[in-house]
Design goal:
Blueprint: E1 3-5, E2 10-15, H1 19-23, E3 28-34, E4 37-43, E5 57-60, H2 63-69, E6 79-83
Antiparallel strand pairs: 1-2, 2-5, 3-4, 3-6
Length: 85
């Protein structure tokens, strides 16, 4: 699911793992696809919290990518992620 990032017009998807626990750091560079559209970015914490108060890691979904795949906040999107060097 794509979530709105406040009033800024930004958007993100939630990365459902604790990257600090799994990768030993709080930011991981990744190659992702959103409905097959490629994106090189990072999994990060931007102050977003899960409902239980734990840290929530996210991947931003740029506006140009959302336009190309025809998706906006509230829409479901297929995401693939792999770590990049």
């Amino acid at each position: 699911m794509i979530y709105a990032a406040g009033e800024t017009g930004g958007a993100y998807v939630i990365f459902p793992y604790d990257i600090r626990e799994n990768f030993g750091r709080g930011r991981v560079k990744v190659h992702a696809t959103f409905d097959g559209e490629p994106y090189d970015g990072s999994v990060v914490n931007m102050g977003v919290r899960n409902a239980d108060g734990s840290v929530c890691y996210i991947i931003g979904v740029r506006k140009d990518i959302r336009s190309r795949i025809g998706k906006q906040p509230g829409d479901k999107v297929m995401v693939t992620v792999r770590e990049r060097e």
